[in-house]
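User: I'm writing a tutorial on reading structure tokens. Could you give me a worked example: one chain, its sequence, then its tokens, then a sentence or two explaining what the tokens reveal?
Assistant: Sure. Here is the example chain.
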Amino acid sequence: MSPVRLMDLSGRTGRDDPPPALISWSSGKDAAYALLEVRRTRAVTPVGLLTTMTERFARVSMHGVREELLHRQADALDLPLTAVRIPYPCPNDVYERAMGEAIEQVRSQGVRTIVFGDLFLEDVRRYRESRMEKAGMTCVFPLWHRPTQELARAMLRDGMRARLVCVDPRVLGRSFAGRPFDEELLADLPRKVDPCGENGEFHTFVTDLPLFRSPIRVRGGEVVERDGFLFADLQPE
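And here are its predicted structure tokens:
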């Protein structure tokens, strides 16, 4: 893992300024909307993005997004990106050690807060809070317990654009891989599928956000199956 790079904090002078925070960045809609929410409310000052990359594939872990597209998001947000590189497959102790090293670097630069885009999975939240508390970090969950039907449409109303990059074929057909996350998609989702995919039914890549300097242009690529999931290989234009 390369050294963690954070936005320069030297300009923050006021006692009442929001605390600096790292954004846990998956490249998908929930992380992006969490960032948008903390910017709106001034709950924190985002100073960097932290993403887990599967080293063997040079792609965002679980989402399967190409590293070049991830860097385009960071450039569009004008926030430094740090990739925590993990092996494939990755035992949990290896993952926790890699994340722990990254968080230690962040703390050494004066950051004590990390923002997550989780919605309602209690076990995931407890795990994050437990690990971050041990590391001396505070967790912020700006989207927690927002009704997902309402949240999905709020994302669209606020101008976020995304594509489905990973789908679980046990609950969604192959045709969903690569589709835009839009009203038509929400209408087509089976009733048992959460509109935000919070149960792992699908993952997304954000191509536009009000915070982006410009949209990220992508074209559809091959859909491949790996580890029981379908991945749409979006490519940069």
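What the tokens reveal: The chain has a mean pLDDT of 95. The chain has one domain: 20-236.
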